[in-house]
Amino acid sequence: MSRAPNSGGILAKLAVMVGVAALTAAWLLSVRQQRIMAAHDLISAHRRMAENERTLWRLRVEIANLLTPDRIEQIAGTVGPMEPISPRRLPPGVADRDKALAGSRELDGAGSDYR
User: Fold this and answer.
1) Is 106 within 8 Å of 86 (Cβ atoms)?
2) Which 3 state secondary structure label does DSSP give 68?
3) Cys-Cys link to 110, which of 11, 35, 54, 114 (CB 3.0-4.6 A)?
């Protein structure tokens, strides 16, 4: 039996097709693995975030239990006498003086034009 004159060309084309299919399959597996790793990293980040939120709430509860109104009054008493902040004592660059001075006796009836 003799071979057809183009059988070598067909084998080469078939080999190229098999090679391209193998490379495509390897590439798809690589992309799939990257997606799995990204999903794993995302889940890990969410777990860490949830744990940090639980820790934050535990600390908030602990702080709330430790800082009763009596305790705050006691701490404020150790600082010394307190007085309201007057416009003269405001640091330069305060963005909203009206909010910073809310409750100041010097501003009673002054309105928002006070600068």
Assistant:
1) yes
2) coil
3) 114
